[in-house]
Amino acid sequence: MISYINSPNIGKYRELKKYTEKYWKNENIENYKKFLMIIKKIKIEKILFQTNNNFSNIIIGDFNYYDSILDISCLINSVNYNKIINKKEYFFFARGNNNIVPGKMTKFFNTNYHYIIPNNYNNLRINNNFIIKDLLFFLKIGIKTTITLIGPISYLLLSVNKIKNFKKLFEIYLLIIKKINNINNFKFQFEEPILSLKINNNWKKLFVLFYNNLKIDYCINSIFEINLKNNELLKKIHFNNILINNINDNNNIYINNDLNKSNILYLIKNKNISKIFIKNCKLLPYNLNIEKFYNKKYLSFFFQKINEINLIKKIILKKINSYDLLYLNNYILYKKKIKIETNIKIIKKNNNIYNNKLLINNTIGSFPQNKEIKISRKQKKNFLLDKYEYNNILKENIYLCFLKQIKFNYKILTHGELERTDMVEYFSENIDGINTTLNGWVQSYGTRYVKPPIILNINNSTNITENWFDFSKLITKKKIKIILTGPITILKWSFFNEKMKFFYCLKLSNLINLEILKLQKQFNIFQIDEPAIKECLPINKSFWKLEINNFLFCFNNCTNFIKKNNEIHSHICYSLFNDVINFIKKININTLTIESSRENFNNLIIFKKINLNLGAGIYDVHSPIIINKYNVKKNIYLFFKKINPIKCLINPDCGLKTRNWYELKYSLTNINKILYSIKNNF
């Protein structure tokens, strides 16, 4: 009667991250065995959780090792590899090695979940047996499961070559289905988020062609809300079930509004409800019970969502007991009013000035956080280290970070963001009304997990960054770039009430604006990071114009007090720039830094005629490969081919804190040597 579509797969205590990274660090047999054991443990936990809750469909296939799209790419060999792909080789296609270039990466629809873009259909075949092994294992212990796979139409949409290769893709999908059904007649669940988009007739024909020729027990899951214009398409498909009217939203951690009095009466009276599905829970944290903040009574994480669904099931079957009535009696929805200022002016875009010096080298912001910082942060959380001692440790490391940047001959320095656990969490901890969690981890990409804050209201902020930058000013007289997280990214990388998003965003922009006002007495370069611009736009493009204008106003409101002679930078990464180029044209910035090395700098073409200084990310930070001089030189000249050198800034990609100082020393030294020789040629 009840079922979910997807569930978190990082482990209740981030076990997958810990053992995967331990294996990457030292690829020996012992670490590999531990890595395989933790994978098996998480998979078994997911299945047992469903059986214990009497789910009608026991879902398998929603676990991924690094990225769910890459799982399918390795299964059907769209990575064009000549051997069978084992779990060791799987990671090469995400992170790269000396022989394999890592795949291009972007964000999945309007979420912060990143995926590796499929790009090769020349050699499709079944290239591993991960999912078949899992099916056989659970079948042996008497559990018949439902296989969930990303649907072929959506997979085609997310790939590089798109619609040209549909025949090859359909054939390999049918072969996978046939191979699985030779074992047993399994149910299939196909995830087709393409249904949330406005699609043309060619895509609709492909949809009908594939699904109307399937002779299996299957259902289709849209993941997101289905676009109303696709309803006619769904009528043409002979499916068993389509999961449209799901109970919960993907990013909604608020208590289920279906459990109010009127809906409870409806559930009791309506006898036709046969199945209840909970939407994609992959991007929800596991459990709210261990959290300590007061406002958690208004919220529910993954385990609480399942309890709510079980309660709805009991209401329908009229089997509620006194404990259930007590739970319903304490059910509270957050209804406090949010106050905002009404005296707001429109901010005009400043005229841009190109670089005074040719080919300035700098970084986007963060630098590696060593073991001393991480251990002292844990000690502070456990009250083994007081705030004064902790701050002194950070100041020592900030001082060393400046020395290293001066040694690399950087013209614009940053303090390394060493006091920040995460670019959003740090700001949220210092804003009254936003709650941060102890264990509310969700996956961003690979083993990069984040703890999204929870926005219920936004009041005043404490001193967020001023003390750290005041200390930075005492160390050096060189130019220091102030790194701030923008209001759009703080909002999108948090859990919030969708109806209130522009009010929240406006209040956040006012707080960032005040922070800049305090800092510009001593500093004149400000970077307002907005990597989440594309994610904030709804999937339905018909609403984009209004949303872009609202978010544009919020961003420009941050720059209200910035003096005309001061520089405003921003950073956007792993985005589809064709979608947000109109936004970028209108935001009040002088310089934009993006990620281009994985794209082979092809994503720069759209920036040719835009009046902005541009940093393109010469070095792919998200790969463990240390870039050599040849590749540095090649990347810089590719950059110059696309963009006029007078507008170019030379910088590595964002996320230097994910690497260690050993890797950075060689990579950044190689960049500086090549840059020095190029400058001499000019």
From TrEMBL:
Ranges where the Cobalamin-independent methionine synthase MetE C-terminal/archaeal domain occurs: 361-672
Annotated GO biological process: methionine biosynthetic process; methylation
Keywords assigned: Amino-acid biosynthesis, Membrane, Metal-binding, Methionine biosynthesis, Methyltransferase, Transferase, Transmembrane, Transmembrane helix, Zinc
Pathway: Amino-acid biosynthesis; L-methionine biosynthesis via de novo pathway; L-methionine from L-homocysteine (MetE route): step 1/1
Domain of life: Bacteria
Transmembrane stretches, start-end: 135-158
EC class of the enzyme, as a word: transferase
Pfam families reported in the protein's UniProt record: Meth_synt_1, Meth_synt_2
Family in the record: Belongs to the vitamin-B12 independent methionine synthase family.
Protein name: 5-methyltetrahydropteroyltriglutamate--homocysteine S-methyltransferase
Organism: Candidatus Carsonella ruddii HT isolate Thao2000
Species lineage: Bacteria, Pseudomonadati, Pseudomonadota, Gammaproteobacteria, Oceanospirillales
